[in-house]
Every structure is written in structure tokens, then in C-alpha cells.
Amino acid sequence: MSVADAVGALAWQALLALALVGSAWVALRIAGRDRRVRSALRERFYLGVPWGSLIVLGGVLAVYLFVQGGLNHWSDPLSIPFSAWSYSYPFGVAFSAFSHAGPDHLLGNLTTALVFAPLAEYVWGHVPEDGSEPDGARGARSDPRVRAFVLFPLGVVGAGLATGLFSWGPVIGFSGVVFALVGFVLVRHPFLTVVALAVRSAVGTVLDALGAPVSVVEVTPAVSPPWWYGIAIQGHALGFLIGVLAGVVLCRRRETGTDPIALWLGTVLTTLSLSLWAVWWVRGPQTYVLYRALGVVLVFALAAAVVAALAATDRPLWGSVTHRRVATAALVVPLVAMCLIAIPLNLTTVDTQPREAGVDAGEYTVFYDEEVENRMFSVVDVEAFGETTGVTTSGVIVTNPKRGVWSQQVSAATLETDGSAAVRVGGLTWSETIAVERTGWEVANGTVYAVHFETGGERVHAFDSEPVRVDAVVDGRTITLHSESGRFLVEVDGASATGRVPVPEPGEERAVGGIAIRNDEGTLIASDGATTVPIAREETYSRTSR
């Protein structure tokens, strides 16, 4: 960015901030509510400030900047060491809920938390409502400072640890906690929750405008999975149920209720807006399945369970079993079931056999392979409803036997489009970046390519594709392109002899088996003197690193 562009961006940001503050101030002054707003905040918050939310949001940002190395690598923080791979790696489990895979991931979660954390803290309150604390509990737990600076942050940390412990598979991100905050607010203020979702969208737009006042976008070829692939739907549901149950308990203790119709409608609108219906699976490297109808059915069932849990009474259903107990069980049983399933999954370590054609960085091994078993899904063998955990994947894979890490970091399709990528591995005190590069030649009926890694100034050959035979036949001779140890070769096979030569440099020509092979600025041309045929074109890429 040039100096002029930077100055222009700062000017736009200043204008935007001024417009936001000025517009809100005018509205409050005209409505005469500025004092009432301050008064309402002081009634619920110590000194009128949601201190707990500020501590939590600041802590998540600090983890990204100083623990994951985002301060020096904003667009590419360390994420692999801070994911919840298994119980054999408690460090990752502890940090997973407060770490993020990248800036978009971080800002998306912080934007939602910026809206819902203060609302959840407002519902909780720094000054407990009458009847919310039994007489024996009066004391430290009723101190506004303790509730603001200790109890609320501890509750958020507890929710984060729970999502790290009981999520299925390697998760990373604050979203499970965010869903817990949303569920907590929803039980007490369903319509406010729906409005807050619109506020979240508006806040995201304002932050985008501050971060990028002017954007210039060029259309380039891109290959990417559907937006719903990779959503930690089970982790989101886990967090949401934790938040809802906490809200139900609080409402019962305070003897407050919520209109059932409002709660049902609010739950449906909230869960649909937050894509809690996105139940998905993967069938292979480039095939994904979305069970949209099943997800929406589960949303409606969840809405009914939430309403029943809050509205049910202690009237006996049969014997000593009350309506309230049954309704509460409708939320508790799925939560407990998810936790019980998570335990054996997270106790299982992934088989991480090392590969010869790879790069070692500390305890990590990075390699490239195609159509290999995706061990993040096949950690247990399950076949049901036409789906299976025995799926394959292709791309750059990172393993760490001690931590049970097995992760595809760059897909083969992405590398084919971009041509290069970067993979960061490391720990608390070190990190290393492995550059990945693909080069190749496009033939009419396929592509011959090679993959190389580079780290510490050393270039390592990682993968060769299968050879491809050219459709054209020149003077009765067949031509095949090979990649061997990262070197591209042209093989000419005639009736009497077979020969190979390296692909010539641009502008050069080489003879093999009576055929001249010329590199015409990225196009390979074969000629026998009478016939000239283009046989391959060098692959081109967008060359954008991950």
C-alpha cells in the first residue's frame, strides 16, 4: 500500500468513526434517553461497564496476537498446536476454544461475542437480583466486583474448556462459547436475541469498512469447498445447549419466565440464522453432502425442547416424575450423549506413520499425497445411512505422532489453482514455515506435475504425478510426459527405440528418437520436420499463498 493509499484509508476510517458516534449521539439526545441508558447500565454493571466481557474479548485477542504469533503473522497464525486433537494433547484442548485459524475466523467470532457477551453479562448482572442467591451464598458471590472481574470470565472460560473437551474431532475457535452466550441470552430475551443478530451483522459491516475502506477485487479462478464444509456443527450445538441450560437454571432461580411463543419463535429464528441446521458430511476429496432437511427438523425439535424446559411445571407426570424433569431431560440427554461420544473419540489417537518424501520440522512431518485415507474421519470405522467414515483426501498433510495430529492443511485442488501455499507448524516458543510449490505441464488428456517443499533454504522434492501419454502420434511415434524426482522428461517411443530427454528451457530445442521437442515460451512443440504438433502447455497459477 502506498503512502497516498494509507492516508486515504485513515481518512475514511476517521470519517466513519465520526459518523457512527455522531449519528448515535444525535439519536440518543433527540430521544432523551442518554441518561436513561447510562442509568440502566449502572443498575446491571459495576460502574456501568461490562468488565467481564472486556476481559474475555481482550483475552481471546491476546491469545491470537501473543500466543499464536498473530502479532507478527496476522494472516497466518499458528493454529495446528492450538487445536484440540485428542486427550493425549491437553495443551491443545485447553487452548482450542480461545485460539483461531486466521483473521477472518477471529474477527467473525469476536464480532458476535462483542454483541452477545455484554448481553449475557447484562442478564447475569453484577448486582444479583432479589432471590437469585440463597442466604448462605451471600458474600463474595454477591460482590459486584467479584461477579464482574472473576465469576463471569470464569464462566466463559469454563464453557470454552467444555467445548474443547467434548467436541468431536480437532476443533479450534471461540464459536462454541459464542453459541453458549447466544443460548444464555435467548432463554431470557428471545426477541432481543433476534435483534442482536441483526446488530451483529451491522457491527461486522462497520468493522469491515474500518478495516478496508476501499476494496479492489480481481476475478481469478478459484476452487473451494462449500461454505458449510468445516463448520463445527457439533461444537456449536454443544455450546448452545450449555448456554440454554444455564439460562433455564438462572430463570428458575430468579423465578422469571419468558413467553413460550416468543421463546419458540426466537429459538427457531436464531438457530436458523446461525446455521445450526447445517448438518454435513464428506464423501471424498471433492464431494460434500449437506443434510439440510434433517438439520431444519432438528432445529424445530430443539425449539420445542427449549420452550418445554422453561415453561414446564412441577406437576407430576407419573409417580415422582414431573413435567419439568422430563422437559429438562430433553435438553440434558442430548448434551450428555454428545459428551459421552466425545470421550472415546478424543481418547483415540490417529495413526501417523511417517513418509519418506516429506519435511520434518520439530515433531511434525509435512508431506504431500493423493487419494489417501482421511484419518480425521476414519479414526473410527462407521457405515450408516449410505455414508462412511472411510473417505479419502489429497493434498498437503501435517502429522505429529506425539500429539496425534493428522491434518490436511492444503487441498490438492487449492494447490492446483494457486500453485503455491505456506504451512506453519510450531509451538509456544518456536515456529517454522514450509513453502509448498506445484509445477506442471498440461496435456490434452491430463496433467503431469510435481510438488516441492522449501524450508530453511533447502528445496525438497515431495511428489510426482503419474506420466501422461500425448494423444497425438508423430511419425508413428508416441510421446509421453513424465515427472521423476521433480524433473520433467519427454519420452518418445518408436518402433525401434525409446528415448528420454529433459523438457527444454524456454526458447531451446532438444532431439529425441528422431523428434525435435521445442519449448516455445511455455508450449512444448514436437516436430519431425514434416509435422509440427503442440503437445503440452506449462501450468499457470494465481500464485497466492495460503
TrEMBL record:
| Native organism taxonomy | Archaea, Methanobacteriati, Methanobacteriota, Stenosarchaea group, Halobacteria
- Return one Gene Ontology term, BP aspect: proteolysis
Q: How does it sit in the membrane?
A: Multi-pass membrane protein
Query: Per UniProt, what is one GO molecular function of this protein?
Result: serine-type endopeptidase activity
Provide the primary localization.
Answer: membrane
- Would I find Hydrolase among this entry's keywords? yes
Subcellular localization: Membrane
Q: Which UniProt keywords apply?
A: Hydrolase, Membrane, Protease, Transmembrane, Transmembrane helix
- This chain's protein is named Rhomboid-like intramembrane serine protease
Q: Where is the Peptidase S54 rhomboid domain?
A: 93-253
Q: Which domain of life is it from?
A: Archaea
Task: Give me the segments passing through the membrane.
Answer: 12-32, 44-67, 106-125, 146-165, 227-250, 262-282, 288-313, 325-345
The record's GO CC annotations read: membrane
